[in-house]
Amino acid sequence: GFGSVVVVLGKMILGILTERDVLRAAAEAPDLSNTTVKAWMTAEPDTAGPDFDTEEAATLMLSRGFRHLPIVDASGLVGMVSLRDVLSTRIGRR
Fold it and tell me: When you count CB atoms within 10 A of the terminal residue's CB, does the N or C end of the chain come out lower?
């Protein structure tokens, strides 16, 4: 029921591993049991703060071609929004 996971070390976000990354790995790697998450994750992903507005989030995700946006504050990772979440909120469905 989820399309991505954020890879963290303490408060630091190292990367994000998405469904697309896993599909790319499955297509390219001969044996995924010997492959690390680090090899296929997107390192240093874009992030947003909790006060980022939905229009900014939608614009960022659509312009950069991704569907999941980690939300961070001074304490580290606090959540994740998907493009579906943002667009649903913008059109008034939840």
Answer: N
